[in-house]
């Protein structure tokens, strides 16, 4: 694991770093980030987005409809005993799984809008409480608090109380219910003014969506951008007044470095990570599943020692639980632990994995086989970090796991902000690979202009075919070979 700089991080702190075009949000758990969101202007058909689509084709053999969303690929809508729409019909639908590879986004007509403690089902009714809240008295308390929100003329559909709602105060639930109902009203208003296909609601990619999902349970909410802070403050004062007082503007050392998030994020893109006890984890993603292998490493010659194997597997289980959330892994995950003879030891390792994922409502852990295999099923809510930030294996001739040109471009923008704060100059000369330079000049031209305005400096770009994808140099105007911004 990467070395971490100790700071005053507290469980629940929300750390927000912004450069023009990209905002990164990290939810802290102790001294480590447990989840990271990368927010950009447009990430395609993201999970949770609501569309007014148009039915393009019905496929009875597949029991599904293909829906035009205005994207590169049509969405896939399973028809499970429902009244089938007809071709050409305008259809209100929501993305449940993002497009992957050559597969279009998976859709549903059963729309839900979520916040930290609640989910609103606009076309549903009644109240449901998460099965993970096992205290009967607490379930009855929550049910009673929500009962008045599903009665009367202004009833806004049905509600699901999430696991995080346990212990929540009535005013918090009421505020979140009002927020979700307001979002649904906005969706309906937008629907009246557009022709399909059109996106009516964006569930991810904005600081508002991050606050809606995490702000209710966050401690301090620290932001290094004044503009992002003002956007967040306006949202909180309108929809989450209890969170507005926790907003803080951070100035000084880069937040992600201060909290150790930068190192954790870079590690989350690595195929192999080492464990403090000498073991190692290897992550391999395939189309059908993600495989995680536990290697005993330096203990390989001592496999006969049951205590050593158990110790390594327990350490691996705790770190795997952390990495699953941090990397945003979804779908089927198969973990190959070091084989253990005793069923008691196997049960302890599975229990450690479950404990590590107990706060993750998306994950379900199954038992371990005698061969040491454990299956984890985790609902995919967004693209894994590696899928979002790196090239697929063999793509564009790049090495597996290499960052995309855009991801490197945003690394350069962050480095420019850091360097300008440390030693202000009127001009910065940046040298990078040809493909990254093209991305900065073309695809990120607006972001680069905003960056120049924000730091009060002009940026010149030069491509070098000898540079690897992730390497870049920068030097003050007119100076060569004085780079402190190289990323190799």
What best-fitting shape do the alpha-carbon axes yield?
globular
Q: Can you summarize the main beta sheet? A: 6 strands, antiparallel
User: What value does the Rg take, in angstroms?
Assistant: 24 Å
Strand proportion, as a percent range, falls in: 25-35%
Mean pLDDT: 88
- Note the gap between the termini: 19 Å
Total beta-strand segments: 24
Number of domains: 5
- Count of individual helical segments: 13
Percent helix: 25-40%
Notes on the protein architecture:
The chain is α+β, with helices and mostly antiparallel strands. The protein has five domains: 14-41 and 206-263, Nucleotidyltransferase, domain 5; 50-108, Nucleic acid-binding proteins (OB fold (Dihydrolipoamide Acetyltransferase, E2P)), CATH 2.40.50.140; 113-201, no CATH class; 268-378; 390-476, Ribonuclease E, catalytic domain (Hypothetical Protein Ychn, Chain: A). It has 13 helices and 24 strands. The strands form five sheets. Strands 4, 5, 6, 7, 8 and 13 form a six-stranded antiparallel beta sheet that branches. Strand 11, helix 1 (136-147) and strand 12 form a beta-alpha-beta unit. Helix 11 crosses helix 12 (434-441). The two termini are 19 Å apart. The model is unreliable at 1-9, 299-303 and 480-486 (pLDDT under 50).
């Amino acid at each position: 694991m990467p070395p971490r700089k100790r700071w005053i991080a507290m469980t629940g702190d929300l750390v927000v770093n912004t450069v023009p075009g990209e905002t990164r949000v990290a939810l802290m758990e102790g001294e480590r980030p447990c989840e990271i969101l990368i927010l950009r202007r447009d990430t395609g058909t993201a999970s949770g987005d609501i569309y007014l689509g148009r039915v393009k084709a019905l496929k009875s053999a597949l029991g599904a409809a293909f829906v035009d969303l205005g994207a590169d690929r049509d969405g896939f809508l399973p028809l499970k005993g429902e009244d089938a729409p007809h071709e050409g019909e305008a259809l209100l639908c929501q993305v449940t799984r993002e497009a992957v590879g050559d597969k279009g986004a998976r859709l549903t007509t059963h729309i839900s809008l979520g916040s930290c403690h609640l989910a609103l089902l606009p076309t549903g009714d009644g109240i449901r409480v998460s099965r993970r809240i096992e205290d009967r008295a607490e379930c009855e308390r929550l049910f009673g608090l929500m009962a008045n929100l599903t009665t009367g003329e202004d009833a806004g559909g049905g509600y699901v109380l999430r696991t995080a709602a346990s212990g929540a105060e009535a005013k918090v639930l009421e505020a979140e219910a009002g927020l979700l109902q307001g979002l649904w009203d906005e969706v309906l208003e937008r629907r009246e003014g557009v022709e399909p296909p059109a996106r009516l609601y964006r569930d991810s990619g904005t600081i508002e969506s991050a606050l809606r999902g995490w702000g209710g349970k966050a401690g301090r909410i620290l932001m290094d951008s004044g503009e992002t802070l003002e956007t967040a403050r306006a949202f909180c004062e309108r929809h989450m007044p209890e969170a507005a007082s926790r907003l803080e503007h951070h100035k000084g050392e880069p937040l992600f470095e201060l909290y150790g998030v930068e190192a954790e994020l870079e590690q989350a893109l690595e195929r192999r990570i080492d464990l403090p006890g000498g073991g190692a984890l290897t992550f391999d993603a395939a189309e059908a599943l993600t495989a995680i292998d536990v290697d005993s490493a330096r203990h390989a010659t001592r496999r006969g020692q049951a205590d050593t194997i158990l110790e390594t597997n327990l350490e691996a289980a705790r770190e795997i639980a952390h990495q699953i959330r941090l990397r945003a892994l979804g779908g089927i995950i198969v973990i190959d632990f070091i084989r253990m003879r005793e069923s008691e030891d196997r049960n302890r390792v599975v229990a450690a994995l479950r404990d590590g994922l107990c706060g993750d409502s998306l994950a379900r852990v199954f038992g371990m086989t005698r061969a040491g295999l454990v299956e984890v099923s985790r609902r995919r809510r967004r693209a894994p970090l590696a899928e979002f930030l790196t090239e697929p294996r063999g793509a564009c001739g790049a090495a597996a796991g290499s960052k995309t040109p855009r991801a490197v471009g945003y690394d350069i923008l962050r480095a420019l902000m850091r360097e300008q704060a440390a030693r202000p100059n009127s001009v910065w000369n940046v040298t990078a690979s040809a493909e990254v330079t093209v991305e900065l000049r073309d695809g990120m031209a607006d972001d680069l202009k905003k960056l120049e305005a924000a730091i009060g400096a002009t940026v010149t770009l030069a491509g070098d075919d000898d540079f690897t994808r992730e390497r870049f140099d920068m030097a003050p105007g007119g100076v060569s070979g004085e780079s402190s911004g190289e990323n190799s």
